[in-house]
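INFO  loader      accepted 1 record
INFO  loader      residues=630
INFO  predictor   begin
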Amino acid sequence: MKLTLVLRDKKNAMKLSTRTIENFIERIKTDTKDGAVARRRRQLSFGSYVIGYDRQFPSHQIYPSAVFEKDDNDNLRMKTFNGVVALTITGLDNPEDLEAVKRAAQILHYTLAAFVGPSGHEVIILVKIEKAGGTGSPISGTYSVITQPYLTEEEADVLCQEGHRLAAALYQTIIPKAITRDPVSVKSNFHMPLDETPFYNPKALALPVSPKPTVADHGAANHGDGSPDHSRLSTTDQENRPHDPDVSRKTQQLMDYLNEHYAFRYNCIMGYTEYKDNNRQYMDWEPVDDRTLKGMTMKVRLAGIDARDNDVRRYVQSDMLRLYDPINDYLWEQYFKWDGKDHIRKLARTVPTKNPYWEEWFYTWFLGMVRQWQEGSRAKYGNQAVPLLISAQGWNKTTFCEQLLPPELSFGYTGNLQIDDKKQVLQQMAQMLLINLDEFNQISPKTQQGFLKNIITLSSVKIKRPYGRHVEDFPRRASFIATTNQTDVLADPTGSRRFLSVELMGPIDVSTPPNYVQLYAQAMQALHNHEPYFFGPAESQQIQEWNKRFSVKTAAEQFFFDYFEPATNDNEGTWMSASAIFSFLKAKVGVSLLKPDNVLAFGRRLSNNAALKKRISKRGSEYFVKLKTT
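INFO  predictor   done
INFO  writer      dumping tokens
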């Protein structure tokens, strides 16, 4: 695809050139050598008469809809139609508004490009369109595309006008500012823009457009009843027209009615369409269920539009609706709002503890949680850290966990996870944002060392949807936090580095809700600045050492420290294998007291004891110990 660039000098002589869309996107990232775009923006900011300025200092005009050539009279003549219309959103006076509109434009997959316009206070969205026709119909969602380069300029004008009208109605549902409704044609153009970070999607889909049938479109007369006389259509036109000539008109009427009376969005997190009734002032977004669909159909039919339940359902459940991502929408809304203060560590300080690492651990984990929400299918690793709050009952541990999510994202919190139901766990990891492993001490050592250890590291989960026919791969969104009333809860010595254990010295202060805007604004800025959101080897070792005080002590391990201690002097110590030590303990305390343990598990625990010297001999691993005198 190529865009046309036109420059008229002071004598109005035309210079015409073309650029590929890829080349154009690269071109607008920097200004000209003499800073022409920035200079024109300054002139506009002075409120000067810009038309006179443009005559004195001409700049390129961009024609996105077609490739043009000059005729003999130095006029533009369409050569090839691109199938692109430009939407313009003005009145954007700060960088936050400009970025918000650009991000919103990226939601719809018809967006070819979005960039800041020539004045610096507007965003231009290039939308791909195509003329729909063939044996399919817009209401069934099946199209065959008429080859667009062979449209006449008059046909291209009609398609651009209808395409702009349809695209404006579609994009206005997601754009917070009004889209300009200036006259549109294939020759619509704009001055050279400038944007360091333009959005470009080479795989953008084309929005199917069905221009209203006219005599000029068909080259046909009408019968007395207003229906077109198909006997006078050309063979090509007859092949390209729909079987039912009223389908396009009825479909457009249906869409216009629904968009006039309702606002729609597809919640890509929850997996369903939501709506608002424009006649109900204080209505919040609600899911579109079967009862709602039937009500919409009845209202459509009462308005005189011939439509059935399936017609309404096809549109309401189609990919023509704007996507709504409650997570990223919320996060990006806070992006520029950080006041520079440390709100994340301040929240950590509401947890009274003597753990000297807690604030830094919580800060890193919080960034990891936010990053996990954003990563989606791109993530290679999941957020593997789990804060573990340890205290007596009634010290507000669960309330603290619940308050970590803002009200807008509260749907993503759960403290009711059945860890033994593996299918439910995997589903909630894909749908939830924060999972509280409440009463962590009730999770068996076997589950800790197996299933739980595995799922904490996952970046995606493979599950089958309800009534689905095959297993699908979903990005993991949930991070974990845990609470317990017991101190000896960590049953996996090698996996304990994943738990950020913090023993409370008193109740957590939950009287004042967190400042959510600043919390997440700080997190977004920290991630933008590439601050670490995971723990490195040194920190993991620090966590593992700290967690030793919270490890579950088996009977054999407790008896070991009753009878043995690490040896440091060669003259007083002896090298013993785990099986030899275990046999010694059985002889001292009896088999019944050591029955739950086995030699292999006992050996792993000895191996993880950093105070014990270890060596590998012909008999396997041996430990340097000495027998206590008392």
